[in-house]
Design brief:
The complex is a heteropentamer, with one copy of chain A (277 residues), one copy of chain B (412 residues), two copies of chain C (378 residues) and one copy of chain D (319 residues). Chain B contains 20 helices and eleven strands. Chain B is of the alpha/beta class and 412 residues long. Chain B has a five-stranded mixed sheet, with helices on both faces. Chain B is globular, with a radius of gyration of 22 Å. Chain D is 69% helix and 0% strand. Chain D has helices spanning 25-59, 78-85, 87-119, 125-137, 140-151, 157-164, 178-206, 210-219, 223-251, 255-261, 270-280, 284-309. Classes of the chains: A mainly alpha (277), B alpha/beta (412), C alpha+beta (378), D mainly alpha (319). At the A-D interface, helix 1, helix 3, helix 4, helix 5 and helix 6 of A face helix 1, helix 3, helix 4, helix 5 and helix 7 of D. Bound molecules: adenosine-5'-triphosphate (2 copies) and magnesium ion (2 copies).
Chain lengths: 277, 412, 378, 319, 378
């Protein structure tokens, strides 16, 4: 009995370890690479003999990288806030109210994210210029809706549907308007869903490249991925791998912090004790 | 010096130019631009664009297709004039014929589309043949003249080295990934075998000929013999990686690799040399494909005259000399290859002068808008051949068919 | 204060009709109890009144206003859900205060109300807990609290005390009655507890499978059930039914065979009955008397004795195989296996025809009609 | 498409029954609210997506080129015809579908495993969750290049390690060898996007009603069975959504292949093909047609998913 | 067949101790009923036995095996949850069959069992429904069904019949009793229904705030409650308590003052009591008789009359302001406001000292001890 439990534990932790290695090693490798310079990049060594911290300094030389990070933060936060807000209200309608054409609408929303990005690029570019949002973070925020909204709407709708109906009825009887029901009753219970979709949307916005490259012009409007892509060596063909890796490591850290914060919201048993039966 | 005409323009306008991204390329460009600013009192905004030429082109097209004047002066690749000409203005009135003639003929012709000079040469580039001096000496081999020799020598040294325990040693690496770089390499092979350059200047599709087949067959024979299968996915940097870490005897690459491989932490420092690429057999000729960049002015620029003046200044002999000295950019002007200041900064400019002047252009001019498509079809065929998916003859044959279709019967 | 009227109200889920045309008047400031077998449609009816379910067809008015198209919040109701439906993320206090806050009353007023309700419900010490930290009965009380803090015109209680212990239940019962008086509100109340039903109700509605079987005052239903179902459903232990025949029909009496051979003249309106008709004789356990007294005597063998302390139920199988239950005092000496004689007082008997419809009793029971005062005014 | 995705396939909890009845006040009040709540989302989406998509679809029927966009004429379904007869396109379609099916399947299973692991209470769970998310957090542009680096046949760490632990006897050219490249790409995609699955599944797991698990424990049902019979059905809706979106992304996969293997035909995906036509070859018409075709294929896939998964779409809580 | 023993079992949630050291023996093939006020720890105790919560301290054995560390599945129990905990995504049938399938019995065997259970619970026509399409009582029955299809050593029922109507409840009660006999299983049963407790239980455990107050046979608790709490909790309506003083102490009698001035000699073991001691006189409503008979007479004014049909509770405020409840026949003519005289039979009275501990009664009640046969064997 005990033995079996122990064995179970051990197995479990082995599994956990395997996962960590699998996910983290490449990142570790990124760090290692970020500490290599010149020819060291072309050899395999699991820890650089003489770490070249200069790569990190190099990232901030030659371009307003701090500014780029700031841009990314602004854009991502705005995108998450906006799409979560829009999706939350929409998901209530789509998830808990039955009206004709609900399925159709859901499908259309989904359809939006069925075109390859490069296909919508030109149209979006025209749209952005037409709105006068070219080389403006607002333009990015707006255009990112095209891939964050369908996703958030669908996920939140699914989760919204899972909540026990008696709760909503109780609120209705208490005289709560749909808006109150969403914000005061459902919102708190959607914690995990919101945190998750929020995170995913945030990262999606954080990592987006094509739009960011096309819709911004000046260096201090660029976002992180573009900035990284624009890091080049002394000449056209050289790929300054060390710097790129350093940059990537730098921009990954804030995300990890974010995750650490948000994952606290991902907790279970929120609806326990709500209804009987 | 910048022409007074423009210098006098009272109001100072701001124009934006895209030259390179960050890095030396950017800095050198910037210093030049600043000088011009100082002289003319206009402001210039430097737009950094992606390093990968494909992405850069995509971005340009996006802007131009939308008739956006956000960038006035574009730095365009040697193969783009045909593609972009429609959005660029004629620069005939920027430089007189005399100055124009100072530039390499090949490049200038390449920049003329339907009698419009859509871009002015700025700096050039050409494929070089890097070799390991030390190894050649060690095994008493001489620098191979022809591809066949190269193959044999490479094979020999590779075997010897491996027997000596350097199990990773390979003979020859080049850019074999399915991208423009492969077209560049393959064009060199073909031309060195006198097999033409896919499409001749009159737009006739010449690629399907026995000599071309020989060239490709030879190249295909390298894979897994003297060349790692990996080259099928190598671009410039991967090649440099292999060569610089001492794992290859020969390499085809651009001049940029030279300073890097002679950096102090480089394992092959001072043990390498450069030469023109080998000939395709005794009756062949050493060829390298023309690379490099031009400057062009957008049709949608709000102040084209000022933009033109900037182009004039940046492409001028003085500026090109400065760039050659401080940045090691190959000038497009014959004279500068005899200028000792330049030679002092870049020793091999002299010995490789031939290579640069005789560099062969890709069939961009003839194929115009469709160059990319032609190139893609070509590199795919070559890539297939190298990957052993069909032999050279058949692949070239089908390539010819495809190109016929693309060119709508050679009319392009 | 409000009246609720239902007219031909029907409700179907999907294809299946659950409520088959209910007509009902719930008077002002009156407590109406719904009783009926599990699954008969009590909760559904409540939810229809609350406006949580659409009426498939029919009319509903509250205070004369047609409410078919009124959303719940405008109907001035509050409801205790059979499945509590507490807000899991809110403390007990907030659960109760939520409705009030929405009606944005003043903080103090709210606080006062909530604490008062908590006191009544004896959950003052739980105000800070989350529902998941509560026992079943405590949750149920929170649910009640949430309903009573807001003072609506109509209360809807769906088995509000089912999970409370007897003692607490009695207290709550009294509190609810008081509450009704104080607010002079109208209450609709679903319960399975006979005592609750009999003591609280002004009017009991007996439902069966979506039909109203009978509506009336508790004692009316007890003394004058309209049919077998009501007779059996009201009163516990349930009324004894004996299949027999009417050997002879007089005017206002029917002479029926009693198991064991005897006969008995039972007073009843026999209009339209013929001798030899199959009838069911109904007599309640509390009316059967062990021994000889009574207008007729059955004999039988005790096979189960249930002693509740204060009273005893003995199950007797009488001659002819049918069985009856007698309710006697707690200390009655009877034991399983004994032969017993059971006296049947004719006046307490009910007769039902072959369709289970009750024959009217000759005189109304004195308590049946006048809605007696329950408590001294003075 | 919409019929296949009829509302009753995913019923909302019937606070008020469906629209067939003219609907009570509550129903109508809620419908009104629903409209108001939907409006902003719909408007924004229409604003953002309307023109670009319409434009793409329009151009797919024209012979427009980037060279000069104005001068184009409608050529009906000609582009689609060319597409249909282009073997390279079909090669790309096959590549993409194969890629999508394989990688999404692996991601789903792996994501499930990881999610279940992370769901267990254990020290440092937060850290583990963060670690688990790293691959997703690195910009694809970078991580793809990085993997390319790691895959390198001569100085790539992967060969190094696998040789080290004796998994392979000689260095492989993972992304150059046509036989391996697709799997190499898939491996990267799995590495990169499993966190997406994991996180969504994790969230779904958190919302499960705890008490049924107590019931299961008392019933003495072994965990495996509980997982398949209770957990899986209950998280099915969320899982379906996760799978749908992953498939969408997988079918539109671009940068991964583009960065890792360029335009190599062995791995070129539909998006890579479309981009080449659209941008490199400036053939806006044809490229748009490819994009639209891609859209249709994805739509088909989605519909299949939903119709297959429909049975379990009403997995909403029975409380 | 199994015995369950608890020794000094304690349980705390967070800091708060909920179960304060419970010792208990549940014998083989016996039905033990837990009763107690809402929130006293009944469910928690059940969950501890089930192994759903782990014991903070103490020992628990089932069949002599120490089960503190045994997971639920290895304890051979099945449980009906107070909050049914049905599998929301499974049909009623699957909900019941689920537990069996893993024991991979043959399809037919399972099917037979499930259908049999469904028949007993009268939910045969609901087998294909999902829980959310069921009424409260129907859900509850499914929960019961899920527990009884698997035949465990120990059944744990947490208020299993609370949402069923009286009639159904009686039937279910009988079915459960039968089931227990057939499986000769051990049952632990939580209920708030006095009748259920008295009729089903072999042994009743009275809990208060996590303590065991008294354990005994139903009639023992009824006739010999150990203290005020038990006396008040068992029996409904609850026992009347009158604060008074023992004017005179004889051996085995205490003479106590009766409201209204009279006195009465109550037989009780008075050891260690002094005249003038404060005592509480307890007498059950069913033992008070209207009128003159009885060893002593109180006078008072009726202020509430609750008529249940078969019986009547009248609440009387006696001289001195204390109030008592009398339980009389259904037709008793008494009305609110009337003056009544109440006879108190001394033999039925209970005495409690100032700490609320009962004084032993002089002779045991004949029914209290011998666990009487409930049903005729023949
Ligand atoms: N998770 C918890 N955290 C804190 N307190 C709890 C928790 N669960 C139960 N309690 C408390 O423990 C006490 C006993 O709970 P339990 O459910 O056993 O009561 P019960 O006897 O079943 O009451 P009821 O008859 O109302 O079901 C209650 O006061 C309850 O508030
Ligand atoms: N959503 C639904 N879909 C289908 N049938 C339903 C639904 N809700 C309830 N029913 C059925 O309607 C009938 C009445 O349900 P209701 O809840 O009103 O019964 P009830 O009288 O409250 O029973 P209980 O006393 O057990 O609570 C039941 O037979 C139930 O099975
Ligand atoms: Mg109900
Ligand atoms: Mg409980």
């Amino acid at each position: 009995m005990q033995a079996r439990r122990i064995a179970g534990r051990v197995l479990f932790y082995l599994l956990a370890a395997a996962i960590i290695v699998y996910t983290v090693f490449p990142f570790y490798w990124a760090i290692v690479s970020s500490l290599k310079a010149g020819s060291a990049l072309f050899q395999v060594e699991f820890w650089p003999a003489n770490p070249a911290w200069d790569n990190y300094a190099g990232v901030f030389r030659g371009q307003p990288f701090a500014r780029n990070i700031l841009n990314s933060v602004v854009v991502s936060v705005a995108v998450v806030a906006l799409s979560l807000f829009l999706a939350l209200t929409a998901s209530y309608a789509l998830g808990r109210v039955q009206f004709r054409g609900r399925g159709t609408l859901l499908m259309v929303v989904l359809g939006v994210s069925m075109f390859p990005q490069v296909a919508v690029l030109s149209g979006m570019f025209e749209l952005i210029r037409w709105l006068g949002l070219y080389n403006n973070l607002m333009g990015l925020i707006l255009s990112y809706m095209i891939f964050t909204l369908p996703f958030t709407v669908w996920v939140l709708t699914t989760f919204m549907r899972e909540l026990p109906k008696e709760l909503e009825e109780a609120a209705i009887v208490d005289g709560a308007s749909p808006w109150v029901i969403i914000t005061r009753v459902f919102l708190p219970l959607m914690g995990p869903a919101l945190a998750t979709t929020g995170l995913l949307a945030f990262i999606a916005a954080w990592n987006e490249f094509l739009f960011a490259l096309t819709f911004t012009l000046s260096n201090d409007m660029r976002t992180v991925p573009v900035a990284i892509a624009l890091i080049t060596g002394t000449s056209q063909f050289e790929l300054p791998w060390g710097n790129i890796m350093a940059a990537s490591v730098i921009v990954t850290v804030p995300l990890l912090v974010l995750v650490m914060i948000f994952q606290r919201k991902i907790v279970s048993g929120l609806t326990a004790g709500a209804v009987k039966g | 010096a910048p022409s007074e005409a423009v210098a006098q323009t009272e109001t100072s306008t701001t124009i934006s130019v895209s030259c390179g991204s960050v890095g030396i390329e950017f800095q050198v460009c910037e210093s030049g631009v600043r000088a011009w600013e100082a002289a003319t009192g206009h402001r210039v905004q430097l737009v950094s664009t992606p390093n990968d030429s494909n992405e850069r082109l995509a971005l340009y097209q996006q802007l131009l297709a939308a008739k956006s004047g956000d960038i006035d002066v574009f730095q365009i690749d040697v193969v783009w004039p045909g593609i972009l000409s429609n959005h660029l203005i004629d620069l005939r009135d920027v430089v007189d014929q005399k100055t124009l003639d100072q530039h390499f003929k090949a490049i200038v012709t390449n920049d003329v589309v339907d009698d419009r000079l859509v871009a002015i040469p700025w700096f050039t580039d050409a494929g070089l043949f890097y070799y390991r001096k030390d190894l050649l000496e060690k095994y008493g081999r001489k620098l191979p003249e022809t591809w066949q020799e190269m193959t044999e020598t490479a094979r020999f040294i590779q075997k010897a080295e491996r027997d000596a325990g350097n199990s990773r040693m390979w003979g020859y690496v080049f850019q074999g990934r399915a991208y423009e770089g492969l077209t560049v390499n393959a064009v060199e092979w073909l031309d060195s075998f006198n097999a033409g350059t896919i499409v001749d200047l009159d737009g006739k599709i010449t690629v399907n000929n026995p000599r071309a087949a020989d060239a490709l067959t030879l190249a295909a024979s390298w894979i897994n013999d003297i060349t790692p299968q990996g080259v099928l996915n190598y671009s410039e940097e991967e090649c440099r990686g292999v060569f610089q870490s001492g794992n290859a005897v020969f390499m085809r690459n651009w001049p940029y690799a030279w300073p890097l491989m002679n950096a102090k932490d480089s394992p092959v420092k001072d043990r390498i040399g450069v030469a023109p690429l080998p000939k395709g057999g005794e009756d062949g000729k050493p060829t390298s494909t023309l690379g490099g960049w031009q400057l062009a002015v957008s049709k949608y620029s709000k102040s084209p005259e000022i933009a033109k003046d900037l182009v004039r200044y940046l492409t001028s002999m003085e500026e090109q000399k400065r760039r050659a000295v401080v940045g090691g950019f190959n000038p497009t002007i014959d004279a500068l290859y005899k200028d000792e200041e330049v030679l002092k900064a870049n020793p091999f400019f002299g010995e490789l002068y031939e290579t640069f002047v005789n560099a062969v252009a890709r069939p961009a001019r003839a194929t115009g808008v469709r160059y990319n498509q032609v190139s893609a079809e070509f590199w795919n065929a070559v890539h297939a051949t190298l990957a052993g998916d069909g032999d050279a003859k058949t692949n070239l044959a089908s390539l010819e068919k495809t190109l016929e279709r693309v060119s709508r019967g050679g009319r392009w | 204060m409000a009246t609720v009227t239902l007219r031909g109200v029907r409700k179907s889920f999907g294809g299946m009709e659950i409520i088959h045309g209910v007509d009902l008047d719930i008077d002002d400031n009156e407590l109406t109890v719904f009783v009926g077998p599990s699954g008969c449609g009590k909760s559904t009816l409540l939810r229809l009144i609350a406006g949580l379910e659409d009426i498939t067809s029919g009319e509903m008015t509250i205070d004369g206003v047609r409410v078919n198209d009124l959303p719940p919040k405008e109907r001035g109701i509050s409801m205790v859900f059979q499945s509590y439906a507490l807000y899991p993320h809110m403390s007990v206090y907030d659960n109760m205060a939520f409705g009030l806050k929405l009606a944005n009353g003043s903080k103090d007023a709210i606080d006062a109300k909530v604490r008062e309700a908590a006191r009544i419900l004896q959950i003052e010490n739980l105000l800070t807990r989350k529902p998941r930290e509560l026992s079943g009965g405590q949750r149920q009380r929170v649910a009640i609290g949430r309903a009573i803090v807001r003072e609506p015109k109509v209360f809807l209680f769906d088995e509000p005390l089912s999970n409370l212990d007897a003692a607490l239940r009695v207290q709550m019962r009294i509190e609810l009655a008081k509450l009704k008086e104080d607010l002079s509100a109208t209450m609709v109340y679903v319960t399975h507890d006979q005592v609750e039903a009999m003591t609280l109700a002004n009017k009991i509605v007996v439902l069966r499978a979506g039909h109203v079987e009978q509506v009336g005052s508790p004692l009316e239903l007890y003394h004058h059930p309209r049919n077998l179902f009501v007779a059996g459903f009201i009163g516990s232990p349930k009324m004894n039914f004996l299949e027999t025949v009417a050997s002879d029909i007089g005017r206002d009496t029917a002479t029926v065979k009693i198991p064991g051979g005897g006969t008995m003249a039972v007073p009843a309106r026999t209009a339209g009955m013929a001798p030899g008709a199959k009838v069911t004789l109904g007599v309640r356990p509390e009316h059967l008397v062990p021994g000889e007294e009574g207008d007729s005597v059955m004999e039988g063998r005790v096979f189960v004795v249930e002693r509740l302390g204060g009273e005893t139920y003995c199950h007797v199988r009488v001659d002819g195989g049918q069985s009856v239950v007698i309710r006697t005092g707690g200390d009655s000496p009877v034991n399983p296996g004994e032969q017993v004689r059971i006296g049947v007082p004719a006046a307490t008997c009910h007769l039902f025809d072959r369709d289970g419809i009750a024959l009217d009793r000759v005189e109304r029971h004195p308590l049946a009609d006048l809605d007696m005062p329950r408590s001294a005014t003075g | 498409m919409t019929t296949a995705f009829d509302t009753n396939r995913l019923p909302a909890p019937r606070v008020t029954p469906a629209g067939r009845s003219k609907g009570s006040a509550l129903t109508r009040q809620r419908r009104r609210a629903a409209l108001i709540f939907l409006a902003p989302m719909v408007i924004v989406l229409a604003l953002v997506a309307g023109w670009p998509l319409a434009r793409t679809i329009y151009f797919s029927f024209t012979d427009a080129t980037l060279y000069n966009l104005e001068y184009h004429e409608l050529i009906g379904f000609l582009n689609f015809y060319y597409l249909a007869v282009d073997p390279q396109w079909w090669r790309a379609v096959w590549n993409t579908v194969f890629f999508a099916v394989v990688s999404v399947s692996i991601e789903t299973i792996l994501g499930m495993v990881i999610a279940l692991t992370l769901n267990a209470h254990m020290p440092g769970r937060g850290l583990l969750r963060a670690a688990m998310l790293i691959p997703w957090a690195i910009p694809t542009v970078v991580s793809a290049q990085m993997w390319g680096w790691m895959y390198h046949d001569l100085y790539g760490v992967i060969n190094e390690i696998f040789l080290g632990i004796g998994l392979i006897d000689r260095p492989h050219a993972w992304i150059a060898d046509p036989a391996l490249s697709m799997y190499a790409v898939i491996a990267v995609d799995v590495w990169k996007t499993t966190p997406f699955m994991t996180l969504l599944i994790l969230a779904a797991l958190q919302l499960l009603p705890g008490e049924v698990y107590e019931a299961a424990r008392v019933d003495g049902i072994n965990p495996v069975k509980v997982f398949f019979k209770v957990t899986l059905p209950l998280i099915k809706p969320a899982l379906m959504v996760a799978i749908i979106f992953r498939t969408l992304d997988a079918l539109r996969i671009f940068d991964l292949m583009y960065v890792l293997t360029g335009n190599s035909r062995a791995t070129a995906s539909m998006s890579v093909y479309a981009r080449q036509q659209l941008v490199d070859f400036q053939d806006v018409g044809y490229g748009s047609a490819a994009s639209t075709f891609l859209f249709l294929i994805i739509a088909a896939f989605t519909v299949i998913y939903i119709t297959v998964g429909k049975v379990n779409f009403d997995g909403q809580g029975g409380k």
